[in-house]
Design brief:
4-stranded parallel sheet
Length: 394
C-alpha cells in the first residue's frame, strides 16, 4: 500500500517508515497554483515532501472542498500530460525497482491519470475502485463537471477493470463514465468482525448514535432536528444522542448552530460528543446504543459505518437513498425511511423503539450478515478472484 498526497493514517501492520509519499500534497499544490514553483530545486522539492511538513499539512487542513481544486483535478487526470508528470515518473520508478507488482489497484477514479503510463511501463493490469467520486466532482460548477466526467470517460480505456463498492454505485458510474459491463465488478467493502465487541440494543435508556463527519452534507442537522422532534412529541423524552466522527474547519459554524439549537430547547445535556473516533474507541461508542443513523442528504456509495454498527450488534436506520436500501435488504440489520426529513426520521425512530423484538432480530441478523457476507477476509478473497480473472483475460 503506497500513500498518495499525505502519509498513511490507517491501522495496518505494514512498515511505512521507508515508503515515500507520492504526489506530496504540498508540492503538487504549489506547482499547480504558482508557475515559478514548477522549477523549484530538488532540495526544496524534498523539503516539501518531508514527513514533518506533510504531517503538519495534514493537521492544518481545514476543509475537503473541491472549490479551487478543479484545475488540479483535471491535471491529475491528464497523467503524463499534466503538471504532475514528474511525480508520476517517481511513482513508476519506485514500482519498477522496489515493488515489482503483478497488478496495480488505484484507490479511486480521480487517480485514473496514472493508469496508462503504469500499464505501458510495467506491462501489468491496472484496476480502479469506485466509491463516492461523484460527491467531489458534482460539487463543482457545471462546466467543470462536464469536463471532468468526459475526461474520466476517456480514461476508461486505460483500465482493465473497475471495482464498485455497491450495485447502486456501479450503475451510477457506468452511466457517468460510460464503462462497459465487462469492465465493472462489484466487491463491497467489509470489516473484520473480530475487531468489534457485540452488544444488544439498549432499551433503557434509548440512545441514537451518529458516526461520520459532523457536517451538514452527512445529515447531522436532519438527525438533530429529528431528535428534538422525538423529545418534543413522544413518550421517549428520555432519549439521548451520541455523536462522533470528527470535523474540519469548515464545519465549526454549522456545529455551533446545532449546539445553540439544542441549548435553546434544553436538550444539550442529552447529547454526548465523543471526540475520539479511532478504531480503538469503537467499543465505547457502540456500547449502550439502541440504533445508529447517519442520514446523508444525497446518500452514499456504501457507508462503512453501517457495517461497523451491525458488527457491534447495533441496527441502523438510513434514508432510502444511494446504496442504503441495498445494504438494508442484503443484511436485514437495518431499516430505511423516506423522504429524508426530520419528521419522518423521528417517526421511524418511534416505530423502532416501540418494537424491542424487532430491534433484537435486526441486531442478530446484522451481525450474522457481517460475519458471512461483509467479512473483510472473505471479500479479500473475492477481490483476488477478480485480479486472477483479469490476469487470465489479458
Amino acid at each position: 500500500m503506497l500513500p498518495v498526497y499525505l502519509p498513511l493514517t490507517l491501522n495496518t501492520n505494514q512498515e511505512t517508515n521507508d515508503i515515500p509519499v507520492f504526489y506530496g500534497a504540498v508540492n503538487i499544490y504549489l506547482k499547480q497554483q504558482f508557475k515559478f514553483m514548477r522549477n523549484m530545486p530538488k532540495w526544496m522539492h524534498h523539503f516539501f515532501d518531508s514527513a514533518p511538513i506533510l504531517r503538519y499539512a495534514a493537521k492544518k487542513s481545514g476543509s475537503t472542498r473541491a472549490d479551487g481544486l478543479e484545475e488540479m483535478t483535471i491535471s491529475m487526470l491528464k497523467g503524463a500530460e499534466g503538471l504532475q508528470a514528474e511525480e508520476l515518473d517517481q511513482l513508476i520508478n519506485y514500482l519498477k525497482h522496489h515493488e515489482k507488482p503483478d497488478i496495480v489497484h488505484l484507490s479511486n477514479s480521480l487517480l485514473l491519470g496514472m493508469a496508462a503510463k503504469i500499464k505501458e511501463e510495467l506491462n501489468i493490469p491496472v484496476v480502479c475502485s469506485l466509491q463516492d467520486e461523484d460527491v467531489w466532482i458534482d460539487a463543482m460548477t457545471p462546466d467543470y463537471r462536464v469536463k471532468l466526467w468526459n475526461l474520466m470517460a476517456e480514461k476508461v480505456r486505460d483500465v482493465n477493470a473497475f471495482i464498485a463498492v455497491s450495485h447502486y454505485f456501479a450503475d451510477v458510474m457506468k452511466n457517468k463514465m460510460h464503462i462497459p459491463d465487462n469492465k465493472i465488478f462489484v466487491v463491497p467493502i467489509g470489516v473484520d468482525p473480530e475487531q468489534y465487541d457485540v452488544f444488544s440494543p439498549s432499551l433503557n435508556p434509548l440512545v441514537i448514535g451518529y458516526i461520520s463527519r459532523l457536517c451538514e452534507e452527512n445529515g447531522l442537522e436532519v438527525l438533530i432536528d429529528a431528535f428534538i422532534e422525538l423529545k418534543d412529541n413522544s413518550v421517549h423524552k428520555n432519549a439521548k444522542l451520541r455523536l462522533t466522527g470528527g470535523k474540519t474547519g469548515d464545519d465549526k459554524a454549522f456545529i455551533n448552530k446545532q449546539i445553540k439549537k439544542l441549548k435553546k430547547k434544553g436538550y444539550f445535556e442529552d447529547v454526548e460528543w465523543q471526540d475520539d473516533f479511532s478504531l480503538n474507541s469503537r467499543s465505547s461508542f457502540f456500547q449502550g446504543l439502541t440504533v445508529v443513523s447517519v442520514p446523508v442528504l444525497k446518500g452514499e456509495a456504501f457507508g462503512l459505518y453501517q457495517l461497523e454498527s451491525m458488527a457491534s450488534g447495533i441496527p441502523v436506520l438510513q434514508p432510502a437513498l444511494g446504496a442504503f436500501p441495498e445494504i438494508a435488504e442484503s443484511t436485514c440489520g437495518g431499516a430505511i425511511y423516506e423522504p429524508n426529513t426530520p419528521i419522518v426520521l423521528a417517526s421511524a425512530l418511534v416505530n423502532l423503539f416501540s418494537d424491542p423484538v424487532k430491534l433484537q432480530k435486526m441486531s442478530e441478523a446484522g451481525r450474522k450478515a457481517v460475519m458471512a457476507t461483509y467479512n473483510a477476509r472473505i471479500l479479500a478473497g473475492k477481490m483476488v478472484e477478480v485480479y486472477e480473472k483479469i490476469q487470465l483475460n489479458r
